[in-house]
Amino acid sequence: MNDKLFENFFELDEVDSTNAEAKRIALENKGLNFVLWAKSQKKGRGQAGNSWYSSDNKDVAVSFVYYPENINVLNQFDLNLLVCNAVHFYVSQCVKDKIVQIKWPNDILIDNKKVAGILIENSVKGTKMEQCIIGIGLNLNSEVFPTELVRATSLKIENPSFNSTPKQAIFSIGECLEKLIRIADFTEAKAYYLNYLFAFQKLQQFKVKGQITEGIIKGVESNGQLLVLTQQGQQSFGFKEIEFIY
Amino acid sequence: MELNEIQDLIKFVAKSNVSEVELETKGFKLVVKNKLPETHIVSAAAPAPVQHIVATPAPAPVTVAAPVAAAAQKADENANYITVKSPMIGTYYSKPSPDKPIFVKEGDVVKPGTVLCVVEAMKLFNEIESEVSGKIVKILLTDKTPIEYDQPMFLIDPNV
């Protein structure tokens, strides 16, 4: 492992998506850990194919590329824990008097509004995780969002005195992520994740198979599935099997 | 089926590395088992303990030898296919995105590192790479279907 995990820092003015561009760069630089920051991202991919809005040099659109040595493919959700925690930690530092939570599996909310999204893309050979591309979209300084993004917010909106550039934010998050990857304490990571998990141990409305149902989130399984106690008992749900109503 | 045809089949099975050949037509079923690696050529009249011929009753006039050879060949190939299984529970995707072409189709030749599909698990997207060289013989799943851990996804013929 390099002395510094994310030493190589690439900067681009504009990309379609940082993950897609990072994948192209990784193909030409096998085995190289790096960070790719784009000042503007035109087709960032968000949840379920929605695009992640990122305006010119105001917000964070970044991809971290690395080759994990200590994460088994069956435990890949552990990596998601570390990334969520790093972004959550940064956001919490920026908006001290607000409720900052992690919405399963990997959105970051401030007072129930989405401020960051994460898209992790791995390549897998057998049971080995070869390469991880960790894409993070974080709204920093944008104060206006397209009308369809009613539940979007930014650090600037939530804290008017917030004053950081995307690059500074990326360095802070990168530093934290690197530390968490090195420590690799997944028990601790899981505890942090659950501590800030949206609707954890609370009665919450969900949509399951088109039906609105109530349940209590009891935890997250090692494979990442959400454990929910419903009237039918305790059940595990995959990402597309359950939808939050909030 | 004629005696000499049965003998030919036994010889064929004995020479090949298949462990078993099963042949079934209307009212007739023949199973030839091969105890590897002790392969001996024996006559149908005096089956040795290493090989068994089970001919169920009502032998009907049966086909020529050619399809028999083909069947044996198929069994042989099947035994040598490599099954690529899912490393995790999730959703199977045959394309990188809905507007892009599929990663691989049946008949494609792949090498180690060729991306075969994507398995999405809890919003983590995993490109599954081939570990072997060979030809995709069969794709066992359709796009956007749920997949279990260890579920077979592809059959690859490495002898190409």
Structure write-up:
The complex is a heterodimer of chains A (246) and B (160). Chain A is an alpha+beta fold and 246 residues long. Chain A has two domains: 8-195, 2-Layer Sandwich (BirA Bifunctional Protein, domain 2); 203-245, Roll (SH3 type barrels). Helix content of chain A is 25%, strand content 35%. Chain A has five helices and 14 strands. In chain A, the strands form three sheets. Chain A has a seven-stranded mixed β-sheet, sandwiched between helices. Chain A is globular, with a radius of gyration of 18 Å. By secondary structure, chain B is α+β, with helices and mostly antiparallel strands. Chain B has two domains: 3-55, no CATH class; 81-157, OB fold (Dihydrolipoamide Acetyltransferase, E2P). Chain B is 18% helix and 35% strand. Chain B has helices spanning 3-15, 65-80; strands at residues 20-25, 28-34, 51-55, 82-85, 90-93, 109-110, 115-121, 124-129, 134-139, 145-147, 152-157. In chain B, strands 4-11-9-6 form a four-stranded antiparallel β-sheet, with helices on one face. A four-stranded antiparallel β-sheet of chain B has the order 8-7-5-10, with no helix packed on it. Chain B has a three-stranded antiparallel β-sheet with strand order 1-2-3. In chain B, a hairpin with a 2-residue loop joins strand 1 (20-25) and strand 2. In chain B, helix 1 runs parallel beside helix 2 (65-80). The longest helix of chain B is centred in the middle third of the chain and has 16 residues, at 65-80. The interface between A and B is medium-sized, with 26 and 24 residues. Strand 8 of chain A pairs parallel with strand 8 of chain B, so a sheet runs across the interface.
Which helices and strands appear, and what pairs or packs with what?
The complex is a heterodimer of chains A (246) and B (160).
Chain A: E1 9-15, H1 18-28, E2 34-41, E3 44-45, E4 51-52, E5 60-66, H2 77-94, E6 100-103, E7 107-110, E8 113-125, E9 128-138, H3 155-158, H4 166-183, H5 186-195, E10 203-208, E11 211-220, E12 226-230, E13 233-237, E14 243-245
Parallel strand pairs in A: 1-2
Antiparallel strand pairs in A: 2-5, 3-4, 5-9, 6-7, 7-8, 8-9, 10-11, 10-14, 11-12, 12-13
Helix pairs in contact in A: 2-4, 2-5
Chain B: H1 3-15, E1 20-25, E2 28-34, E3 51-55, H2 65-80, E4 82-85, E5 90-93, E6 109-110, E7 115-121, E8 124-129, E9 134-139, E10 145-147, E11 152-157
Antiparallel strand pairs in B: 1-2, 2-3, 4-11, 5-7, 5-10, 6-9, 7-8, 9-11
